Amino acid sequence: MVATRKSRFLEGAYVDVRGSVHYSSVLGARDVMRHEGIPVTTPARTLVDLAGVVNDNLLRTAVRRALAKRRVGIRQLVATRRRLGRRRGSATLNRVLRAAAPTRSELEDVVFDLIVDAGFVRPDVNQPLLLAGRRIVADFRWAEQQIVVEADSRAWHDNPLARADDAERQTLLEAHGDGVVRVTWEQAVMRARETVARIEAAGVPRPGIPLGALREGGGR
């Protein structure tokens, strides 16, 4: 039996349930690693086990944060689930994996779900770009259309340094030819329909619509 300090190992990737130690009774060598000298289950195995004891929302958050921190990849998660076979939580994990993305905050979760639920083509999520010698990470980007949607959280952006950094990043993106749409929590939650219309008007595509048709048609 191997104890895994879930909250410490995934560094905030998910919220612990009924304590901070996870136990797994059946483990193969490929499911075990060492963290600071302590035998622990791998992130992929931990998430597969977690699927059996938490709800969809907690598991979705755990998977997305683990992806964002590069603790695990989608292929690795899918391979681990398949190798372990059908078990408690398998259906929950399957649902979560269908909408998995490396989001880094609750607001990014909300904005990403808004984008997916509205039927837009899925964007690249938190993929770095090198612009004018600077590494830029756009929250959500459609590379072919050169459109970026930024989750604009006051928790992270409501101070002079953060606002200056945001302005510089937007300037670099726009100089590169990217249009930028900023979305706040209130806009994503309280004005979702209006926000979807803004994103569509910017030219974000939907499946089956020819590239460029949205911009040429004024977003319609």
Task: Give the gist of this structure.
This protein has two domains: 2-98, no CATH class; 106-216, VSR Endonuclease (Endonuclease, Chain A).
Characteristic key phrases:
single chain; 220 residues; alpha+beta; Endonuclease, Chain A; 2 domains; four-stranded mixed sheet; two-stranded antiparallel sheet; 11 helices; 8 strands; 20% strand; globular; disordered N terminus; disordered C terminus
Structure overview:
Helix content is 44%, strand content 20%. With 220 residues, the protein is of the alpha+beta class. The protein folds into two domains: 2-98, no CATH class; 106-216, Endonuclease, Chain A (3-Layer(aba) Sandwich). The radius of gyration is 20 Å and the shape is globular. The N and C termini lie far apart (58 Å).
